[in-house]
């Protein structure tokens, strides 16, 4: 057992993984981009206060005091498709961490592509961004084609103590304290999350995406139900059948069976 910079006991912290705890930062993903080239091993960057967090598609991520905001920056093995599949690893790790800190296996579910739900409401979100590339240039959201990713930033936000205001059409946000009665600090949550991520990452690198896919589907919200998937240009209604071997959403629609690699999902 070791201790972090704040003196808290750390058990089961994964070997070969570093952590940085910051009192305040604009965005943990932005900080990951600033530090990536100088890091020699996978590193969790935890901010006790985040002033300019962001979500998918450039949306602002509202981050009230007491919540969890952290980014894992790493060098992902494999092509861009494998990098993108780490959103499912992060979701499984989040699920396990939530169960560990609450002692409650019920109530949690995973919403495609990157949210964790508690009692049907949004508890946590995940944002993957590439930080440079091998054989390409620039960075941005992780896709399934193109150059290999040099560094990957896996940003995670969890409503531990406070929930942001609800947005029109979106799943209502909740926090872990009010919904599950669990008083957890960001550092304590990271102590549960980091080992869980390391477990699924080792599984992924050894056996590929298949066991990750199966584990994710076992925890999926609204599987077998009618949902709406909205891309930048179109909206699809259909039965959520599964995810395919790449992680794309498979919908059975009036136009037939469709594979949707990226979209926002809305429940009825």
Automatic annotation (TrEMBL):
InterPro entries: aa-tRNA-synth_II/BPL/LPL, Biotin_CoA_COase_ligase, BPL_C, BPL_LPL_catalytic. One of its GO terms (cellular component) is cytoplasm. It holds the Pfam family BPL_C. PROSITE patterns: BPL_LPL_CATALYTIC. Signal peptide: none annotated. Coiled coil: none annotated. It is an enzyme of class 6 (ligase). Keywords: Biotin, Ligase. Residues 14-205 form the BPL/LPL catalytic domain. Its EC number is 6.3.4.15. The keyword Acetylation does not apply. It comes from the Bacteria. One of its GO terms (molecular function) is biotin--[biotin carboxyl-carrier protein] ligase activity. It catalyses: biotin + L-lysyl-[protein] + ATP = N(6)-biotinyl-L-lysyl-[protein] + AMP + diphosphate + H(+). NCBIfam families: birA_ligase (TIGR00121). This is biotin--[biotin carboxyl-carrier protein] ligase. It comes from Roseicitreum antarcticum.
